[in-house]
Design goal:
Strand content: under 5%
Shape: elongated
Radius of gyration: 20 Å
Largest sheet: none
Structural class: mainly alpha
């Protein structure tokens, strides 16, 4: 790794800790330089503004949790079992320390920057990016009946977020795997009650 790239990484990693622990607004570029053990000039050479540094930090953190694995529909496995597996994987992501750290860091920034919300929405972190295609394949095999695949995918994921992720993020509930398992089962049952193909 080139010395310049190494210093850039030091700056980003320092900013990750400061932004996560103190907040973006409370973190100065001077503080970043001190923690990164580089000069303030070096920080500005890599990132002209704190907004650009925040963007780099966010991309760095998202890259650590990004999963490019596509959901694969298996016609030999019951659809409810597959949906349960997908939901469990999604909950594992939503409740992970890495994902919660990103969420807490960006929460306040979302109130100040509408473009940030659009950027995060386009990331399709988790299963939302490939779930519509999975649902389409299930429909082709006659297991589901869905007209709006994008909407159905969002209903599935947002149900998990509203019941598990947001209560955890806001500190309303503490982690409880037994509770998560129950909510996952209920989410899948509700989804199938709406979208399972009707047998003639």
């Amino acid at each position: 790794m080139k010395l310049s790239d190494k210093k850039r990484l030091q700056i980003i990693e320092a900013a990750v800790d400061l932004f996560s622990n103190s907040g973006v607004d409370a973190t100065s570029m001077d503080m970043v330089a001190k923690v990164a053990q580089v000069s303030k000039r070096t920080v500005y050479n890599h990132f002209a503004t704190k907004e650009l540094l925040f963007s780099a930090v966010l991309n760095h953190m998202l890259a650590d949790i990004e999963c490019n694995e596509r959901l694969k529909f298996e016609p030999t496995i019951a659809i409810d079992e597959q949906l349960l597996q997908i939901a469990q994987a999604e909950v594992n992501l939503l409740t992970s320390d890495a994902f919660l750290r990103i969420a807490r860091m960006t929460f306040i920034q979302l109130l100040h920057d509408a473009k940030l919300a659009q950027t995060l929405n386009q990331q399709h972190i988790g299963c939302l990016g490939t779930l519509p295609n999975f649902l389409a394949q299930a429909c082709e095999h006659g297991l589901l009946s869905i007209e709006d695949l994008e909407l159905a995918a969002k209903q599935f994921v947002y149900q998990l977020k509203s019941l598990i992720f947001y209560p955890l993020l806001y500190g309303i509930e503490t982690p409880n795997q037994q509770r998560y398992d129950y909510l996952i089962e209920q989410t899948v049952e509700l989804f199938l009650a709406r979208y399972a193909a009707k047998i003639a």
